[in-house]
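Q: I'm a student working through a structural biology exercise. My instructor gave each of us a protein and asked us to get a predicted structure, then write a short paragraph describing it. Mine is DUF624 domain-containing protein. I'm not confident about reading structure output yet, so if you can add a plain explanation after the tokens, that would really help. Here is the sequence I was given:
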Amino acid sequence: MSDRDERRREKTARRGELSGAGPVREERAPARFPGASAKFALFGEVLTVGLLITLVGLLIITLPTALVAGVRHMRRFVAADDSNLRLFWADVRAALVPGLVVGVATLAVTLLLLLDIDLARSGYLPGGALVEIVGWAGLAALAVALLVVASAWMPETGWRAAIRAVPAIVAADVAGALYVLATAVFVGVVTWALPPLFIPAIGCAVLAVVAIPVRRRRDA
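A: Happy to help. First, here is the predicted structure for DUF624 domain-containing protein. I'll explain a few features afterward.
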């Protein structure tokens, strides 16, 4: 066999290993996220998840449910597990009814904070600048909490366990919480600039929420 044929076979074997379609060679450890090795397929999945979350979350109060289903679907995809869309809809059905309470509470708090910011900007409130800062900080904290809850939710434990886990998750990985905050700000900025960009932006946010907790850390 010529060197050219050998290199071609090696390239084919490496491509199959990275994609999960071929065997893993003994001298190399398996990829951490085999489903994410095909970049174009990952990009397509980000758009698909973004579209699904947008559709399910159209009522606003259903957005938490859409996020938990999207996160679980993306987690299965990057792990090269079964990422059939029927599992996404199964998660939607499991999270929907109790998730409406979370959605209503999230919407109420969001509207209250936006009202505070609007009143602070009107000039009628004493210390308006401080009130506005508190309002924006509250919105940021709410966005981070919502994304962390979406990451922690499981059908077996439900919404209460996911919400109660937020302080511990944030305390255990403050840098990760800041990354999640940056992700939420990114979604807000691009949606404000051009609303249709919410679809790819929320898909990217879901991918970030999946990747941030399992990233390699310097202290690991």
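A: Here are two points you could use in your paragraph. The chain has two domains: 1-30, 39-214. The chain has a mean pLDDT of 86. It's a good idea to check both against the output above yourself.
Q: Great, thank you!
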